[in-house]
Design a protein that fits this description.
Length: 373
């Protein structure tokens, strides 16, 4: 992996990230393909219609079904899915935490029951990397000890201690495997924990920054805290995250969250919000959110958004999309998801241009003005 910052506008950064499968500019948003598929879309939609350069897949879900070895036999994620851009794989720790009522972290790892069949499994720092080696993703996340917020001080401190311990085990194991010729084109990211406790976050970031990871992620946010607490935590962390490595804010977020955190220096984002909202009939526009299922859109012949260059807006009207939703036609999921992801990816491109031109403050002011008018 190669990463280089090309322009800065105060703390906002325009960079270039090159992996074995794609080259793209940051800040970047990664569509979420949890089970190796962005819901309702295929590789052609992602590559040709959206020009997505990187998407996210999830280790937990693929470990359980169809199994990492199945994907490995079929050529890894890129051959398996037909998507030739880059893949980032999450460690699966968040899903073990959130989907299993009986998940239990310990010093060894995270024990959990499958949400599919109730079978028992254990994720360890080594095992989640072995799964990701088999998947052959470009960017791999290590196992961390995630906690819900708010949390007590002693639990936050334990989370940080475990996360650092597992990070040391992960980077050591990764270097050993690379000496054996495994994972040579794969890159490894550590995850900073600490809740909204600035001192815990600073301690975790300082420890992880010195271990030689290819990038650092901020985890454990957007899990119950107020938005401003998230922004303040991110801002407080930036001085302790290496300037020359990518910074990834996990599971975030709304269009406003993207703008606020790019301004603070974040490079990579992922979130299910654009596709999940699309399936529920909520579409994103420059003026805010639009609920396509409302009766006022019956028979409307204009697109979701004037001057939008997405496939959906260029071919279909609000009236047709309203009809598809009400008729429960599956094609609605695809068309709505195409629009919402195009909107998200377009925001990122607009921010890239604004940073390059030194006009990020103007971009942000215009972004909020359109949404309030």
């Amino acid at each position: 992996m190669h990463f280089k910052i090309k322009y800065k506008d105060k703390n906002a950064r325009l960079g270039e990230l090159i992996t074995a499968h794609s080259s793209f500019q940051t800040p970047a948003f990664m569509p979420v393909g949890t089970a190796a598929a962005v819901k309702s879309l295929d590789a052609n939609d992602l590559s040709k219609l959206l020009d997505a350069k990187i998407i996210l897949a999830n280790t937990y879900h693929l470990f359980l079904r169809p199994g990492a070895e199945v994907i490995k036999r079929l050529g890894g994620l890129h051959s398996f899915t037909g998507f030739k851009g880059s893949f980032l794989t999450d460690s699966g720790g968040f899903q073990a935490f959130s989907l299993s009522k009986n998940s239990k972290p310990s010093e060894e790892g995270i024990a959990f029951k499958s949400h599919i069949d109730g079978s028992l499994h254990l994720f360890t720092p080594k095992s989640v990397l072995d799964t990701q080696y088999a998947l052959n993703s470009d960017l791999m996340m290590i196992l961390d000890d995630l906690i819900a917020l708010p949390a007590k001080k002693d639990r936050i401190d334990l989370s940080v201690k475990r996360t650092i311990k597992w990070a040391k085990q992960s980077i050591k194991y990764h270097k050993e495997r690379q000496k054996e010729g495994i994972g040579l084109t794969q890159n490894i990211f550590a995850i900073i924990q600490g809740g909204t406790d600035y001192e815990a976050r600073r301690l975790c970031a300082n420890e992880l920054a010195g271990l030689g990871f290819d990038g650092l992620a901020i985890g454990g946010l957007s899990v119950g805290e107020e938005n401003q607490a998230m922004y303040d935590t991110v801002e407080a962390l930036m001085p302790f995250m290496p300037e020359n490595r990518p910074r990834y804010l996990m599971g975030v977020g709304s269009p406003e969250d993207l703008v606020e955190n790019v301004e603070r220096g974040v490079d990579l984002f992922d979130c299910v919000m654009p596709t999940r909202n699309a399936r529920n009939g909520t579409l994103f526009t420059k003026e805010g959110r639009l609920n396509i299922k409302r009766a006022e859109f019956i028979g409307k012949d204009d697109p979701i958004e004037l001057n939008c260059e997405c496939y959906t807006c260029k071919h279909y009207s609000k009236g047709y999309l309203n009809h598809l939703f009400r008729a429960k036609e599956l094609s609605f999921f695809r068309l709505a998801s195409l629009h919402n992801l195009h909107y998200y990816l377009s925001i990122m491109k607009s921010m890239q241009v604004a940073i390059k031109e030194g006009k990020f403050s103007e971009f942000k002011r215009d972004f909020y003005h359109k949404r309030s008018s």
